[in-house]
Amino acid sequence: MPLSDTVLEALAIAKRGVDELLIESEFAQKLARSEASGVPLRIKLGLDPTAPDLHLGHTVVLNKMRQLQNLGHQVIFLIGDFTSMIGDPSGRNATRPPLTREQIELNAQTYFKQASLVLDPAKTEIRYNSEWCDQLGARGMIQLASRYTVARMMERDDFAKRFKNGTPISVHEFLYPLMQGYDSVALKSDLELGGTDQKFNLLVGRELQKDWGQEPQCILTMPLLEGLDGVDKMSKSKNNYIGITEPANTMFAKVMSISDTMMWRYYELLSWRSLDDVAALKKAIEGGANPRDAKVAIAQEIVERFHSRQAAEDALADFVNRSKGGIPDDIAEIAVGGAPLGVAQLLKQTGLCASTSEAMRMIDQGGVRIDGTVISDKALKAEAGTFVLQVGKRKFARIVLSA
Known about the structure:
Elements: H1 5-15, E1 20-22, H2 24-37, E2 42-47, H3 56-70, E3 74-79, H4 101-115, E4 124-128, H5 130-145, H6 150-153, H7 157-164, H8 171-187, E5 191-195, H9 199-211, E6 218-222, H10 248-256, H11 260-270, H12 275-286, H13 291-306, H14 309-323, E7 332-336, E8 341-342, H15 343-349, H16 356-364, E9 368-370, E10 373-374, E11 381-382, E12 385-391, E13 395-401
Parallel strand pairs: 2-3, 2-5, 3-4, 5-6, 7-13
Antiparallel strand pairs: 1-6, 8-11, 9-10, 9-12, 12-13
């Protein structure tokens, strides 16, 4: 049966920027059935609260959830408080240390609050998988484990590599994809979202639903967003991230630091602009427009989403001021004693550089300024007083140096 224009439009929105949609024909039929019956699809996203804060890389899949939410479907934000105690082995070359209950509860407190900056909290169903996982007990866990073979588990790329290399695989790690799949059974999920590294786990959900006599969920995987370096995926450990609770000015400046090429990746995965709008921007730049204008637009869109329109305007003004060599208004004031104090030591003590060796390197590169004047003498000692210390383009501090 031919699909309606509404279903085709919804399918196009669902597919924007995705890595895979499995199985597309099944999902199209689910959309058609939902349109005919008026019953929204149940769309699940599970996140383990392994860290207290989210960055833009996490919001790639949240953006997709919001788009599907705007189409009228029921999105389920699942906090994996039970599965966090197992530890997701996806992409790991070693056993991941499980989190304690205290760590999980602490991290979970901020997860949905931050996710609500993207999702509509009033239309989001929040669940914790301990609701049904705790009830399984030992007997239930054994019965669940009987539904999947070791051979099927070893089809996972990371398990296969670890086994081949003689790297230990703990038995409890096999339970993780089973528990994630059981979440889909418990929630009667129609569609589950995740990153590309979650594909195996999402497919397990399909198989378990079949075992329970449910219609299998479709799965939608989103690419992993590259960080500010344009190479590695966005990660706090690699310090190439943009946190969604960072100050507006910092967030804006970080987006402006990405390459012109990477900018389009951010439009594809983070922007809520239509594809036609993005195509028009690309065409304008090909016709001679300044790529900076397009980058400003995506930076303002992102800042407005997580702060406000006024904050986005102020962040742009601050960025322009800095670009002209100006000093931002919202810099921290740090009191330091010990004057006269070597500049390299001062940079380390104030946290503007991680070490004196990094400070020396920044001075050599001409990246250190005092009150706007470039410092080239590594032996310079700063006298007592108040002045602005700057490292690179984005790090500023107002120093109150005393004897």
